[in-house]
Amino acid sequence: MPKDAAVEEFAGLVRALKARDGRSYEALGRRLSVSASTLHRYCSGATVPEEFAVADRLALLCGAHEEERRALEAAWTEADRARRRATSPAPTPVPAVSAAPEPNPQPSAPEPDPGPAPAPSAPDPTAPEASHARPRRGAPAPLIAAAVALVVLALAAALLGHPTRTASAPAPTPASTVPGRTVAPLPFTWSIGSQLWEGGCGHTYLVDRAPRAVAPPPVAADSGGWAGTHGAVHGGEALVRITVQGRSPSDAVVLHALHVRVVDRAAPLPWNAYRMDNGCGGAVTPRHFAVDLDRPRPLARPVDGLDASGAEVRKIPAVSFPYKVTSSDPEELLVSARTAGCDCRWYLELEWSAGGRTGTVRITDGGKPFRTSGTRGRPAYVHDSAEGRWITD
């Protein structure tokens, strides 16, 4: 199948950046926190990053100037749009629904042949009232009288000095949006990736569908579209990558702490578990934080990460807060939130300070809490690529 022109254009820009830098896929992937095989797929046009932040970090590492970065972002936007079109499911035709018969219809006399139209002021008093009679035009006299009475009452209240509230009256302006008061923008930008797989190859989703109604596992780069189409929920573990980058090359932003807030706990979902084991590449997990959602007050605890992008697996020692970020020195935080005994909805809060300012940023999944559910005791399936179907694990 020929590649989309937008995807090929983006891949060509990525290849040019990689060629300019001269480093191997493995070495560049280690700096970008992606596997060598994933970076190769970006260069070949086989996949498109779900977030521009990955391509932007590559541009910064390879010394691209601002105009090149803008051109790269424009190309990624078009390529991402093409990727979404290619992975979006075909619309399901909606069957026509016939109108349900009226329950317990009352018997009525057959409508007589209309003769000359009777005068509107002389209705037949002997005609039986039907529950499905057509509405008459014009408002009934009692409603008109009521409306006039309301208007008179409103005018009287205004003349007597008693304020009235109407539907069109503007609500009081909140203090945060008082005209003349502006909120300074954050001194940094941040983005998230919430559909990550362990090592780029292993993950479990809970899906409320039978195996025959579940599509084959996607590549990791297309996991967001697959999960959205199937209404999937992270099973057992959710990986969330937070990329933080300062706006200034010299004025650093200090990141002080990362807090976990669980907003809802319920029993684990009684759905089938589908494992996405689809061939592992290398992986880098810097600034790795483990969260146990089953604890009453979960904490983001720094743990050692692993660099598996080379010939040997290398340990990345845990580093605690604080961190500093600038426009040329971004930071990635990888949160691994696990649960065995709940269907948990949660979000993160990142504390920061810069130039005498302090604040807290709430990190969510597109405005909604992240969601992770335990998989203990659930039927588990893996995909048999040879037979093209899901089989019991």
Automatic annotation (TrEMBL):
Biased composition (Basic and acidic residues): 384-393
Region feature Disordered, mapped onto this chain: 80-137, 367-393
Start-end of Pro residues biased regions: 102-126
Highest taxon above the source species: Bacteria
Pfam families: HTH_31
Protein name: Helix-turn-helix domain-containing protein
Species whose genome carries this gene: Streptomyces cremeus
